[in-house]
Amino acid sequence: MVAVVVVGVLAGCAKVPVAGDPVAEDVMARQAERLNTQLGYRNRPRDAESIAAEVRTDPVGDGSVRVTPLAWAGRLFSDERATVDVRFDVTVLDADPWGTAERSATRCYRYELELYRYTTYSEIDCPAIATPPVPSAAPVPRLPGDAEERLTAVLRGATPDTLAGAVRAAFPDEVFKVDTVTAQGTLVAAVGVPAERDCIVMIRTPDGATKRVGFDPVWLEPGELGCSVQLYTSPPR
Prior knowledge:
Layout: E1 2-3, E2 15-19, H1 22-39, E3 41-42, E4 46-47, H2 48-52, E5 64-76, E6 81-96, E7 99-114, E8 117-118, E9 120-124, H3 147-157, H4 163-170, E10 177-183, E11 186-193, E12 198-204, E13 210-212, H5 230-233
Parallel strand pairs: 2-7
Antiparallel strand pairs: 1-6, 3-8, 4-5, 5-6, 6-7, 7-9, 10-11, 11-12, 12-13
Helix pairs in contact: 3-4
């Protein structure tokens, strides 16, 4: 019986290293494909290092599979591409009445990613890197937790002439899209991070009441309305 186990677990067994074993390589090939599925379809702008930070090892029975990001380059933005190079190290213990053969395999793959495309990968030569760098993910831009409170305060004090400037002042970072309009006496403001489908829309009616507007999140997707005052003034029917 072939079992994938952590190296050194079976104390006392005689171990004969067998590098590049077909059984270990099969386990590794399945892990490489699984990672490709995990990285999957990309629909958010990201830099390659943030994507590399997503790479993780899923448990495989009681086995030893180590996945290590080695290098990364590029970003997902417009028609740009990102690449992430990953090394897989697999160990399989093949037990029989005469001892245990320790079978291992190491392979490297390059994962290629593009915005609004599925990830692809291919095998590459493993580079000689003694201590690979550790990737870290960049913070994902989001609306602040008090976005509704900020927008409510702006709407209560704004006029049609001051609305746009007041909303921008409340959300000064250029990562935020600001859209405003006055429609039949109702002040409407939309603020969001379009790339992250993060959006809030609020209104102040002629009687002074403020409220948040609900909408279908699908309308934020590319090709739809996006984060816009039209989510209130001209919603899809």
